[in-house]
Amino acid sequence: METEILKVDNLKSNYKYIEKAADLIRKDELVAIPTETVYGLGANGLSSEACKKIFEVKGRPQDNPLILHISEIGELDNLILELPEDVKILLENLWPGPLTVIFNKSKIVPLVVTAGGKTVAIRMPSHIVARKIIKASKVPVAAPSANISGRPSPTTANDVYEDLKGKIPLIIDGGQSSIGIESTVLDVTEKPYTILRPGFYDKDDLEEYLAEVVYDNSLLSKDIIPKSPGQKYKHYAPKASMEVIIGDNKGVKDYINNYSKNTNRKIAYLLFEENSSVLKEHDIFLSLGSKDRLNEMAHNLFRNLRLADKLKVEHIICEGIEEKGIGIGIMNRLKKSSSYNIRRV
Ligand code: TXA
Ligand code: MG
């Protein structure tokens, strides 16, 4: 199958591309769509046939449920059993945006979407192109990240093309995803409401609107390196081996200095600007931006991991950060992409 890429940079003149994407979705075909977090692999979320294709194309384990994407709050009613008043207020404030909420599902949600379960994940993205496509397709759009399972999530149309060319008919190019890591996933089917996946919003952001929010136990372990990491954690992973180093500027610089003296492997260094002076001219430096602007680190994180692979490096050394705010979401991704190879320096 030929994979077409259509760039939507002007909603008025490119509306035909939106129509084309929506049309394919209505016909149970897959279309990659831009969102503010990462690109999604979209399908008709009310069609089991269409959703099955998502699992095939991604090589996704059958027991991993999908998120349904909507374009207006009103579309929630048909998909869920109840909307608690406090959650309604939360959504009025944080939707559209990088927040996914888990509800008890209604009958019309196919079991392939929920991996057989009684709950369904729903998100209203803020990316205008995504919302236009969802609205035009007139169905909720099931969309996981548009990568091959296990690879870093795609934040550009080109990243999607790398992974899925020849497997899907259309990629809509809406520019680089502004946030760069996936949405915060919040389960509101039981109290206390629980964050299952950290993202742009952290617990404090959600507690602006909700009385109590907790992190799922599996995210909480203070001990960064779990006792048995195991292959099942491998996720967001580049082809090269990877380690994450956490320390103050001196600690990081000393470590890198020492490391580069004692290796002849091809290394990509993902460092903050503050520490880049430690590198030599021929070293491969991929900038994480400034330590003072962690949104930039998130914005380019997966892109840097993919870039390192393209440069065919053997090993990646990436600076880590304190687990606060968006740093919790970033460290969650880094732990998984490095298979918990984290070192304090
Ligand atoms: O930002 C995002 O959320 C992106 C964009 C495309 O919207 N999507 C995304 O989808 O990251 P995916 O499939 O890569 O990750 C969805 C996460 C998975 O960890 C999945 O296990 C969880 O949400 N999830 C989905 N439905 C669930 C449910 N009913 N209960 C618990 N977790 C669920
Ligand atoms: Mg994913």
What does this entry show, briefly?
This protein is of the alpha/beta class. The chain has 11 helices and 16 strands.
The total strand number stands at 16
Quaternary structure type: single chain
Spatial order of the strands in the main sheet? 1-8-2-3-7-4-6-5-9-10-11
SSE pattern, N- to C-terminal = EHEEHEHEHEHEHEEEHEHEHEEHEHE
Query: Can you count the helices?
Result: 11
CATH superfamily membership of the largest domain: DHBP synthase
- Computed Rg: 20 Å
CATH A-level architecture of the largest domain: Alpha-Beta Complex
Strand content: 15-25%
Label the structural class. Answer: alpha/beta
CATH class of the largest domain: Alpha Beta
What does the overall shape look like?
globular
Largest sheet data: 11 strands, mixed
What is the CATH third-level topology name of the largest domain?
DHBP synthase
Overall tally of structural domains: 2
Q: Helicity level, as a percent range?
A: 25-40%
Mean pLDDT: 94
Hetero compounds:
threonylcarbamoyladenylate, magnesium ion
Outline the low-pLDDT stretches.
226-232
Rounded to the nearest angstrom, the distance between the terminal CA atoms is 49 Å
Characterize the structure shown.
The chain is of the alpha/beta class and 345 residues long. The protein folds into two domains: 4-228, DHBP synthase; 241-344, Rossmann fold (3-Layer(aba) Sandwich), CATH 3.40.50. It is built from eleven helices and 16 strands. The protein has helices at 15-26, 48-58, 85-94, 111-114, 128-137, 157-164, 203-206, 217-220, 249-261, 294-310, 326-337; strands spanning 4-7, 31-33, 40-44, 67-69, 99-104, 119-123, 141-142, 170-173, 184-187, 193-197, 213-215, 241-246, 267-271, 284-287, 315-319, 342-344. A hairpin with a 5-residue loop joins strand 9 and strand 10 (193-197). The N and C termini lie far apart (49 Å). It binds threonylcarbamoyladenylate (TXA) and magnesium ion. Magnesium ion binds at residues 144-145, 153.
